[in-house]
Amino acid sequence: MSSNKERERIQRLRDAQLNQRNPGESKIRGYDWAAHAKRGQQIKKKTRKPLLVDLYQVLPSRWKGALVGFAIGLVPLLAGQIFLEGDWKLLGLVGMLVCLVVGFVIGAATTYETVKK
User: Fold this and answer.
1) What is the pLDDT of residues 4-34, one digit of tens each?
2) What DSSP character marks residue 30?
């Protein structure tokens, strides 16, 4: 007997909760769902990062450092191509490779620091 009363009480509580959460047909029917979806897409576009930024964040920090070193190493490479003559132009390539290796080492060092913490 008491279990039936308990079940009825629980059912009444569930029904009351569902009725409180129900917005009603008039609110649902009159709402512009297409505009709502369009606003949601615009918000997603605003918060979305560019593809290159996402790809850069996926890289391990070693390779991030190497990529930054490569970008910095383009400066001595271009300077060597512009200002040096003959076979000395290869000296600019050495500068780029040094920057690449230094960037890789710095990226690896930052990886180990974050892992230790």
Assistant:
1) 899 999 999 999 998 888 776 666 666 777 8
2) T
The pair of three-digit structure tokens given for residue 68, joined into one six-digit string: 């930054």
SS3 of 52, please? helix
Q: Are residues 28 and 85 in the same domain?
A: no
* Burial grade of 103 (CB within 10 A; 0-12, 13-18, 19 or more): buried
Structure tokens at 76: 């001595």
Token pair listed for 100: 């690449």
3-state DSSP percent of the chain in helix, strand and coil, to 5? 85, 0, 15
Other CB atoms closer than 10 Å to residue 63's CB: what's the count? Answer: 15
Range(s) of the domain holding residue 68? 51-116
| 17 in the same domain as 55 | no
The total number of structural domains that make up the chain: 2
> In this predicted model, what pLDDT tens digit does every residue of 82-117 receive, in sequence order?
888 888 888 888 888 898 899 989 888 886 655 555
- Which three-class secondary structure state does DSSP give residue 76? helix
